[in-house]
Amino acid sequence: MHTKFHTFIFVLFHFVVSVVAVNAFAADVRDIRVAQQEGVTRLVFELSDASEHRIFPLSNPERIVLDISGVDLNNSVVNGLSALSSDVLMRVRYAKRENGVRFVLDLAQKAKAKSTVLAANGTYGPRILVELEYGVQKPVTVVKSLANLSKEKRDIVIAIDPGHGGKDPGALGQYSVREKDVVLSIGKELASRINAVDGFKAVLTRSTDTFLQLRDRSRVAREANADLMISIHADAFTKSSARGASVWALSLSGKSSEMGRWLAQQENSADLVGGISLDDKDQLLAEVLLDMSMNSTIQMSLNIGKSVLGEMKGVAVLHKDSVQQAGFVVLKSPDIPSILIETGFVSNKTEAKNLSSRTYRVKLAESISKGVIEYFTRNAPDGTLVAWKQKKHSDYVYIVNKGDTLSEIARRNQVSLPVLRQANNLSNDVIWIGQKLVIPAG
After folding, report:
1. Which part of the chain is CATH 3.40.630.40?
2. Are 346 and 173 in contact (CB under 8 A)?
3. Reduced to 3 states, what is the DSSP secondary structure of residue 400?
4. I want to staple 31 with a disulfide (CB 3.0 to 4.6 A). Which of 38, 46, 130, 416 is the partner?
């Protein structure tokens, strides 16, 4: 009995040790991603299951230590560590420990580190976000804050993005036409016409022959608090018979993939979507807010695109007579309506000749500007000079409330009492609750 008991204890001990050994590494580090922004490097450690972690700095030399409990590394992550670097991050080292893995982030200079746990979603597992802040930090700016905008009559900002540039010539067509040259010329002409209209302001992502990454183009628009982004391109096709200009907005499939990027990587969590920050919301609420914002943005993009297409058809042959939809990266700003304009096919002799003509480019830019200005004149955002002018120069109706007097209504609306009487055919100052009064424009 005594021997059997010891045998039982021995087996039980090994069973418990085996279970502990299995459970000690119940999760894997599936992937490590690095994103670089001015003054900030972000690392995302994606796990197969939620795990505890701690983070702390060490000096001489500067480094950050991240301990993740109960995890192991797969070979693909180990093999890819040597590729992880940024402005401040020199390399990532690791060491397996009894209770998990220790990562050491070797730094090129002193940095402030903070970590955030991100919940799993349909695309990614649980993640640990590590942010390394260094150098002089730019102050955080609030994008499209209604409280701020109501204090001033701001311009409607149109971001104009001439595609390609620099080392990327874009499509090469007939008569040695290069896409990057054609679209830069049209972009400048368009900006000139936008800036000529009171209450509108154009911002170019590039005004010279320079190359920009796709998402850097959207970043320029966001930093400018743009109300619209227009990306300008010129098509090419294997068949020279293909021709026609077209206007594009983001597709629903493109929307879904971009939602996944924003919600999963959290690289843009500090940005605002419709004036609401996502970084302090739970996953479900963030998804709902982002989905609503992107649906509204896509619909507005389609409406603007329709207005632009209606003007362009007077200048160019259209490839399609309705706004098309696709998942172009430059269309994927959740909070900025965006359209992409294909100005024609440089692979087509007629259109290449047209696009090589400055006269034609000017007409095309003028038609695009008319479509944009026409739309925003009808749908001026609150707080803009255009909206203020419309309100100032149009009558509106006021419904009399309890306690109102005609003189007080006149004073509040900056209208003289005789003018208010005349506008409403009043012979005296007697008014009643519920009465509708016309307030004449100032």
Report:
1. 146-378
2. yes
3. coil
4. 46
Q: What's the average model confidence in pLDDT over 399-425?
A: 86
Residue 36 has pLDDT above 50, yes or no: yes
Is the CB of residue 373 less than 8 Å from the CB of residue 385? Answer: no
**Class for the domain spanning 395-439:** alpha beta
In the chain the first and final C-alpha atoms are separated, in Å, by 105
112-158: pLDDT as tens digits: 999 988 888 767 788 999 999 987 654 443 344 334 434 458 899 99
Specify whether domain 20-133 bears CATH 1.10.720.60. Answer: no
- Which ranges in the chain are annotated with CATH 3.10.350.10? 395-439
Tokens found for residue 332: 């994927």
Q: What is the pLDDT of residues 277-314, one digit of tens each?
A: 445 545 555 556 556 667 888 899 999 999 999 999 99
pTM: 0.55
Within 13 Å of residue 139, how many CA atoms lie on the same side as its CB?
Answer: 2
- The domain 146-378 having CATH identifier 3.40.190.10: the answer here is no
* Nearest CA-CA partner of 74 in 44, 54, 53, 101: 101
Backbone angles phi, psi at 358, to 5 degrees: -65, -35
